[in-house]
Write a structure and sequence with these properties.
Layout: H1 4-9, H2 11-18, E1 29-36, E2 44-53, E3 56-64, H3 76-82, H4 86-89, H5 95-106, E4 111-113, H6 116-129, E5 137-141, H7 142-149, H8 157-163, H9 174-191, H10 197-204, E6 206-207, E7 209-211, E8 215-217, E9 220-221, E10 251-255, H11 263-272, E11 276-278, E12 287-290, H12 308-315, E13 321-324, H13 325-333, E14 338-340
Helix pairs in contact: 7-9, 7-10
Domain Exonuclease: 28-194
GO cellular component, one term: cytosol
Protein name: DNA polymerase III subunit epsilon
């Protein structure tokens, strides 16, 4: 099936546009991004992708789809985010049909996504709700690599893309986000002089995740000398939480009203995940979650109001990071870093 972008530009023109970058023999992967109709991760309504061969994008596109019937309704928040409406997907195939189109592109290549725990988790959940088998592929996370290889106050896709001079046409457009995730991956590889996904993982001290028909294991960070977690849970947090969870071991402050929960509920949630909530930003804070609709997509936003304390601590050498509420929720949604299909 011809992709949206192939139909728009033609494959020859697409190839000519993407062959400007240096050829890296064997640097092959498929980046992906999904958008959802509502708060359920399984409500996939759009799938974007970019195929990279020898370090250059050779194909890209996106498809709309109807989410699994059980989670097929659209929430206003999501519609405002990506602009996809129920009418736009009404005549489109179901998710399970579009997944087959994506897997035709993936074949035996590794998959990359920016915040892969969300995108791969969405695919797992949508497959479960559609009563179809999980696909099998290895996958990496450009968000995790960015956190390990860059020193930024925020690691959202727009922020990382801006830092690396990567073009991002329209955030939350599935194709644009998939293309940006691919280009971020290539930019990180060039910055650190690596030539394959495996070399990039080694440089960032991470391991690829893997999804199979029966189980999954998320992307993981590793220590220099072993495979354990580099952090310990704070004394007040759940000591039995998954040490590979991205919030495990963090000291987290919250500022501004959260639309999704009350402040104490947020403290209780992060404690269950092995983090501890703090009522103020201090030298020990590692993550600051800002509510009140804070978007944080440009550096200028971090020098106004509520993010200023984080900037001041960073200027003093403290590696505090800022999360928006949607970023926080996407991390918190994945309560485990591995599992089996029930």
């Amino acid at each position: 099936m011809q992709s949206v972008t192939e139909a728009r530009f033609g494959r020859a023109q697409l190839l000519s546009r993407t062959r400007r970058s240096a050829v890296l023999s064997g640097f092959d992967f498929v980046s992906l991004d999904v958008e959802t109709a509502n708060y359920s991760r399984g409500s996939v309504c759009s799938i974007g992708y970019a195929v990279v061969r020898d370090g250059a994008r050779v194909e890209q596109g996106q498809w709309l789809c109807r989410p699994p019937e059980e989670v097929g309704h659209f929430e206003g928040f999501n519609v405002r985010l990506h602009g996809i409406t129920p009418a736009m997907v009404a005549s489109q195939p179901r998710f399970e049909d579009r997944l087959g189109d994506l897997l035709d592109r993936v074949a035996d290549l590794p998959v990359v996504a920016h915040n892969a725990s969300f995108d791969v988790g969405a695919i797992r959940t949508a497959c479960y709700l559609s009563d179809i088998e999980w696909p099998t592929f290895d996958y990496g996370c450009s968000l995790m690599w960015s956190r390990r290889l860059l020193n930024l106050i925020n690691y959202s896709l727009p922020f990382v893309a801006g830092h690396l001079d990567v073009k991002l046409d329209a955030h939350h457009d599935a194709e644009a986000d998939a293309v940006a995730a691919a280009d971020v991956t290539l930019a990180l590889a060039a910055l650190h002089d690596v030539a394959t996904i495996d070399e990039l993982c080694s440089k960032a001290l991470t391991r690829l995740g893997r999804l199979t028909a029966v189980d999954w294991r998320g992307c993981r960070t590793i220590c220099d000398g072993g495979g354990g977690s580099p952090k310990a849970a704070p004394a007040e947090a759940n000591q039995d939480a998954d040490p590979h969870h991205p919030l495990f071991g963090q000291v987290m402050a919250f500022t501004g009203a959260l639309a999704s929960m009350k402040r104490q509920e947020a403290f209780d949630l992060v404690a269950r995940l092995g983090a501890v909530g703090s009522k103020s930003v201090t030298k020990n804070t590692t993550l600051l979650v800002i509510g009140d609709g804070f978007a944080g997509t440009t550096p200028d936003e971090f020098w106004t109001g509520k993010a200023l304390d984080a900037c001041r601590w960073r200027a003093k050498g403290k590696p505090i990071q800022v999360l928006t509420e949607p970023e926080f929720l996407s991390y918190a949604a994945e309560t485990e870093s591995s599992g089996t299909r029930a």
